[in-house]
Amino acid sequence: MMLAAGPALAAAPSPPVGDFDAVKARGELRIGADPTAGEPYYWLAAGKPKGFEAELGEAIAKKLGVKAVFVTTSWRDLLPALAGGRIDVALNALEVRPDGEAAFTTPYYVSSQAILVRSDQQRIYGLSDLAGKKVATTDGSVASAILGKLKPPAATRLFADTQAPFKDLAAGHSDAVLLESAMVRRRQQADPKKFRLAGLPLLPRPYAAAVRKRNPQLLASVNKAIGDLLNAGEIKKILTGYNLWDSLQSGGVAPAAPAATPTPSRHRAHRLGGR
After folding, report:
1. Residue 132 CA to chain centroid, in angstroms?
2. Would you call the peptide bond into 98 cis, given omega within 30 degrees of 0 as the criterion?
3. What is the pLDDT at residue 182?
């Protein structure tokens, strides 16, 4: 279901599907995003879009000479909403991957997995150290699949709420958390005396915006906007503001090969029924 929140948001209009000329004529770039993504990606505060993807969407729209209008769309419905013409761009933690309807832009961020432990934990310094340990993560996530392949497998503690693994770790019920690096780093920075990062980021995965394949002019325009923002250092500035600029982003966010199979990003595989 499409929900509008606040003056900066709008209910998704009906088709027709439009390319760049239609976007310019409308004066709006309709950007699909799910506010339950939360910090640091995209969320609503007093009805207004916040997060690094909100700032990026506004910067792209400005480059295109139009207004960014964020259309609240559940994450699992982003690509269907795009295919149906209800939004122009999907911009919300989407991994570059093969898709019959969507074309992905130049990546704007490289995500990864990271390990968080309590500061007094002296036996975990990397992924292999999680074998046989109690590790908290989200149900159906990339991290949960990784943990199941360890030898011996980790005793995985699964949660639907993305904040629950951190609470579980703080309470001493688990030995570590394995989740997307942006969320892990943000939690560690919020309480550096209690938590530490264990090892380097794992499994880098590029995030990109998506447009309809039948809208090549819009794809080219959004790609140019992202390229200009990268070259001008604007994306670095946005990411730095959320403590997201790291070694994976250095030198600009380079395009990466698509995943062999469509894989949900971050913690959201459970929303797709384990797709």
Report:
1. 29
2. no
3. 85
CB distance 169 to 117 below 8 Å = yes
Nearest to 72 by CA among 42, 39, 34: 34
CA 108/CA 112 separation, integer angstroms = 14
User: Are the folds of 20-108+208-244 and 112-203 the same?
Assistant: yes
DSSP type of residue 8:
T
Q: At what angle do helices 52-64 and 234-241 cross, to 10 degrees?
A: 160
**CATH top class, domain 20-108+208-244:** alpha beta
Q: Which of 122, 123, 170, 116 is nearest to 143 (CA)?
A: 116
pLDDT of residue 201: 83
pTM as predicted: 0.72
Is the alpha carbon torsion for 44, 47, 48, 49 positive or negative? Answer: positive
Residues composing the chain: 275
Going from N- to C-terminal start, the domains of the chain cover: 20-108+208-244, 112-203
How confident is the model over 11-20, as pLDDT tens digits?
Answer: 444 434 558 9
HEC sequence for 101-136: CEEECCCCEEEEEEEEEECCCCCCCCHHHHCCCEEE
pLDDT band at 264 (very low <50, low <70, confident <90, very high): very low
Q: Which CATH superfamily is domain 112-203 in?
A: Periplasmic binding protein-like II (3.40.190.10)
Say how far apart CA 234 and CA 42 lie, in whole Å.
Answer: 18
In the block, which residue shows the tokens 């908290």? 136
Mean pLDDT, all residues of the chain:
85
